[in-house]
Amino acid sequence: MLNLLVLTLAFADMWMCVDVMLNNRYTKAAEHGSSLAMNTLATLYDDGLGVKKDPSEAMRLYRLAADDNIPQAQFNLGIRYLIGSGVCPKDASLGLRWLRLAASNGHSKAACNLSTLLWYGEGPNGEKGFVPVDMVEATKWRKVYEDLESRMSFVNTMVSGSTPQQVKDNFARNAAASVSKLK
Asked: What is the DSSP string of 30-62?
């Protein structure tokens, strides 16, 4: 039993070191302007993983990454405004604005959430009338979501042997094709 405890503590200590090492790398990359690193670092601050939990710093980094057109950061901001978590007040119009940007940039979960919010008009906690019901826009975002998901499924099967830039280019092309169907 003691051996198991020692092994568990050693394993936990190893992961703590990995967290600190990754945090240092993301911090350096964010300081050098990497928006993807800013978004990841924001998530670490949001959850308190390897760093002291700091919702204000998380929101600052999410905003920087979102302003630099990182769909995941836009999605993260949208959800935080819809829920009112951290240091931001609950604001449905800002939440929808960020979700629309994320979905327009190919974030399938943003498109799915938009579709659901606009279809039912309910907030994250079931509040009626949280957003205006708009079934036409909801249907458009649902189609974007389904198209993105089917394209990503195809892309995932084709990824092997592709360079990271090829995968990114394919994703951007697929996202643009999905969004152009809205117009």
From this structure: HHTT-HHHHHHHHHHHHHTSSS---HHHHHHHH
Instruction: Give the DSSP letter of residue 76.
Output: H
pLDDT score, position 7: 41
Q: Kindly report the length of the chain.
A: 183
Top mean-pLDDT range of 11-15, 141-145, 176-180: 141-145
Mean pLDDT value across residues 100-125: 91
Contacts of 27 (CB under 8 A, 6+ apart): 37, 41
What's the half-sphere exposure (Cβ side, CA atoms, 13 Å) at 142?
12
Rg (alpha carbons) of the chain, rounded to whole number: 19
- Give the pLDDT confidence of 2-12 residue by residue, as tens digits: 454 444 444 44
The pTM assigned to this predicted structure is 0.70
Look at residue 61 in the predicted model and tell me its pLDDT. 93
Q: Distance (Å, rounded) from C-alpha 168 to C-alpha 78?
A: 23
In eight-state DSSP terms, residue 69 is T
Query: Hey, what amino acid is at 18?
Result: V
> How many angstroms separate the CA atoms of 131 and 133, rounded?
6
What CA–CA distance (Å, rounded) separates 6 from 138? 53
Q: How many CA atoms lie within 13 A of 9 on its CB side?
A: 6
